[in-house]
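Dear Dr. K.,

Following up on our conversation at the group meeting, I've run the structure prediction for 6-phosphogluconolactonase from Somion occarium. I'm pasting the input sequence below exactly as I used it, so you can double-check it against your construct before we proceed with anything downstream. Let me know if the numbering doesn't match what you have in your notebook.
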Amino acid sequence: MHTPSAPILYSFADPNNLVDSLARFIIKAQKESIEKKGRFTIAISGGSLAQQLNGLIGKPGVKWEKWQVFYADERVVPLDHEDSNHRLCNDELLSKVPIPRQNIHTIDYSLADDIEELADAYEKELIREFAQKDAARFPVFDLILLGVGPDGHTASLFPGHELLSEEDRWVAYITDSPKPPPKRVTLTFPVINHAARVAFVVYGPSKVDIIKTVLDKPEQGLPPSRVRPISPGQVYWFTDADASAKVEYPRTPFKL
Ligand SMILES: O=C(O)[C@H](O)[C@@H](O)[C@H](O)[C@H](O)COP(=O)(O)O
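The predicted structure tokens came back this morning:
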């Protein structure tokens, strides 16, 4: 029944090719989603991922007014703070494209003194977008974009952390993140694993060992290995030759 499909691994020798292929992949996902539902729901992580999205800037065929952008995880800092994932994503991409501000769903930092309330408010923001329209137990994002830390975390789901077993909530909070800043909110595994598509974007030599473990030894259960969207959801890996150098898992040639 709901057997997850095997991950699809792309490895690009040329970094520009990764950026361009990722942009084309996102535009195709956007087109299919808008044709089906009239909108495109996407969640974006922080870290180096934001820079990899600049292939979208100025590309024909992107219907920015149909995008609904959420954050796969967010650091609990003011939105203009240099640690904010929203600030990063805004600086790298969103401020450079004609997306309506109300389509960008940020945390409400005014609730930061009570992180549980802040996480609940962000969950309600998702419910407003998804529950009424899709009436599903969990939201079905059209696309979730994730990175992987050298310690094997993804979004703000860290190896060995109790949040890995969250089965109920859409948005959870963490106050002891091993990667600073310590206070964060994150989408949970049930949400990530209900997405139509999840794409990891990982490049550079510092990721070579962790990517090998995640893809070749999924039985170790690192957070990115647990990203296995239920059918017909699909997980993709966009890597460069440095990050995937040691991986034995089979690569798929990129074509749309
Ligand atoms: O808020 C965060 O810290 C990120 O969302 C995090 O999950 C990130 O994606 C990875 O740590 C990879 O980051 P790099 O690509 O910068 O290594």
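Two things stood out to me. The first helix runs from residue 15 to 37. The chain is about 25% helix and 15% strand.

Best regards,
J.T.
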